[in-house]
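Researcher: I'd like a structural prediction for the single chain below. Treat it as a standalone chain; there are no partners to consider.
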Amino acid sequence: MLPHLPSAIVELPEPTNDSRTIITAASQALHAIYRPTYRFVKAGVMLIDLLDANRAQL
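Model: Treating it as a single chain, here is the predicted structure.
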């Protein structure tokens, strides 16, 4: 069986530091790439474009 190497990007609608929102977005990404015929043994979540909470939004 060939390797299944998908990826997904979920953009959040607004800046957040709420882990529940981040976990929900990660779950959405997993559902988008999941294939029942493949066994997942490892997955990762990368957070990009992070800013300090005290930095003003433009």
